[in-house]
Amino acid sequence: MSRFIKKTVRELPSSGIRKFFDLASGMKDIISLGVGESDFVTPWHIREACVYSLERGYTNYTSNGGLPELRQEISNYLDRKYEVGYEPFSEILVTVGVSEAIDIALRCVLEPGDEVIIPEPSFVSYKPCTIMAGGIPRTVPTLEANNFKLLPHDLKNSINPRSKVLIMCYPNNPTGAIMNKEELLEIARLAEEHDLLVISDEIYSELTYNGEHVSFASLPGMKERTVLLNGFSKAFAMTGWRIGYAAAPADVIDAMLKIHQYTIMCAPITGQMAALEALKKGETEVKKMAENFDQRRNLMVNGLNQVGLTCFEPEGAFYAFPSIKTTGLDSLTFCENLLKEEGVAVVPGNVFGDCGEGYVRCSYAASVSQISEALDRIERFIKGCRKKKGICATT
Amino acid sequence: MEDIKIRLLQVLEQNHRVSTKTLATMLKVSEEEVKEMIKEMEEAKIILGYVTLVDWGKTGDNDNVTAVIDVKVTPQRDVGFDTIAERICRFPEVKSVYLMSGGYDLSVMIEGTSMKKVAFFVAEKLATLENVQSTATHFVLKKYKQDGITFEDDEKDHRLVVSP
Q1: Over the stretch A293-344, which tens digit does the pLDDT of each residue have?
Q2: How many CA atoms lie within 13 A of B84 on its CB side?
Q3: Among A12, A252, A365, B116, which residue has the fewest nearby CB atoms (within 10 Å)?
Q4: CB contact, 8 Å: A124 with chain B?
Q5: Residue A395 has what pLDDT?
Q6: Distance from A66 to chain B by nearest Cα, in Å?
Q7: Which of B11, B155, B159 has the CB atom closest to A295's CB atom?
């Protein structure tokens, strides 16, 4: 029936992660460093609050924008943590994860042919969502030499009269890069100069290990051109609940709400009840988890560097993004061979954009013993690679 | 106390088998510093010991019974409950002793090879101590969770092997 499928979707490549997933999920006894979610289970008080809400019969629709109490708490949280003020009922929209928010934000601003600037390596959905919304993605490579930060100079070179949106994702998946206030200010200046709308995906904002996260919307004059996206998945270990939110000036939220109300109606109430509990009482748990990630980050980065995969020190999220260039293998071959020979799953860097070639993403959301064992196996694998390379060179 | 020591204690409290080398990497200090801090805290009796939580029931040849005993005692002038508590602590059968608020004074946990032996211990050794007014013995039927660890934990990792 493929003749019925429209061209844009037919030509859209399926996610590279998907292919690798199929390969990995058929194997037994593997250690996975390929997971894009926390290894913590949602804290019990949050799960318990959700069960209690079910017992009390909260099984209905909520208002399109989300539970009023939840939007109020989100507003308080954003103000308290990042010093950005949003009116809870006209400037905040509760969505089905940040994923939905990315989609509807792009759909309500892009005219056919509008360009969206996407720094890469980056999360896999920005590009396809842009294409499906009729826009044209213009990717900007970020480099290890610059700590995977977006340089103003590179941004400037990618701007043209068709540029409309800039997508920012810091702390970054997959590199773990963050951007500090001074660096963001330079980006903000360019956004202003060229009248760009900035969609800032700050889902990893609670997981920074070197100073507090700076929200793009908190920069002078930026609230008026920013759609701030955040959610509960990473900070509160709530990926499967699918609750995120968008915060933006009322006219943008109003437009997003139109698409949201006709396609989603509202985010599931059970998840919203859990999110409410998370914001009210979850702060201690978030801190504990972040501290725990920080320790494992040190273990992972140090270990990778020791086995000979040079690794930039990530300052946020829960990923390390080491270079595998010394092995002489491309990312996909490296990952496939590592999986087959040593049973360790990591993700090829190029699924996050072409400039991710030569890198792999290793998640440290795994136990200390798993990380240590995985590092041993990676070391053995790399020694094997070197040997083979040596043999090839001599013959 | 210094932040680094607290973080070290938090890791050790969860798992004391993590090597000093790994601890040093995790906490971003040198291995020597880790060893030094551990030694210092052992000497200061901040770290009192390293125990392994064993589910003896699974070994098949251990039918030990555990009892929790509520003990009412008469506090003594100047020393309060301390002298009597320290005395109770000396018995090797005694696993833990806590001073409690509420209806009784000391909560004493005892382990013995049979119910009879525990009962005799209470009747002969504990109840007869001077200043002990009364005892109430409760036998443990099943342990579900101890020191933060659940005995039959079947929580698996449900995550997909690879995800974006």
Answers
A1: 999 999 999 999 999 999 999 999 999 999 999 999 999 999 999 999 999 9
A2: 25
A3: B116
A4: yes
A5: 44
A6: 26
A7: B11
- Residue A216 tokens read as 């793009």
Number of helical (H) and strand (E) elements in chain B, helices listed first: 5, 6
Cβ contact A118:A130 at 8 Å: yes
> What is the pLDDT of chain B when averaged over all its residues?
93
B16 CB near a chain A CB, below 8 Å? no
Using CB atoms, pick whichever of B155, B161, B164 lies closest to residue A124: B164
Contact call for residues A341 and A30 (beta carbons, < 8 A): no
Which of helix, strand or coil describes residue A112?
coil
Residues A243 and A142 placed together within one structural domain of the fold? yes
What digits encode the pLDDT tens for the residues A20-57? 888 888 888 899 999 999 999 999 999 999 999 999 99
Query: For residue B60, with 0-12 CB atoms within 10 Å meaning exposed, 13-18 middle and 19 or more buried, which class applies?
Result: exposed
Nearest to A168 by CA among A144, A190, A150, A146: A150
Q: Do B11 and A291 touch (CB under 8 A)?
A: no
Contact (CB<8Å) A368/B27: no
Per residue in A155-179, pLDDT tens? 999 999 999 999 999 999 999 999 9
- Its ipTM equals 0.86
Question: What residues of B are in contact with residue A21 (Cβ under 8 Å)?
Answer: 160-163
Q: What residues of A are in contact with residue B10 (Cβ under 8 Å)?
A: 291
Classify A290 as helix, strand or coil. helix
Looking at the domain assignment, is residue A33 inside a domain?
Answer: yes
The pTM of this model reads 0.93
**Are A273 and A295 members of one domain?**
no
Residue A138 domain flag: yes
Whole-angstrom Cα Rg for chain B: 21
Domain check: are A216 and A365 in the same one? Answer: no
Asked if A370 is an interface residue toward chain B (Cβ–Cβ < 8 A), one would say no
Query: Both A95 and A132 in a single domain?
Result: yes
Closest-CA distance, A350 to chain B, in angstroms, reads 12
Query: Quick check: A66 and A245 in contact, CB under 8 A?
Result: yes
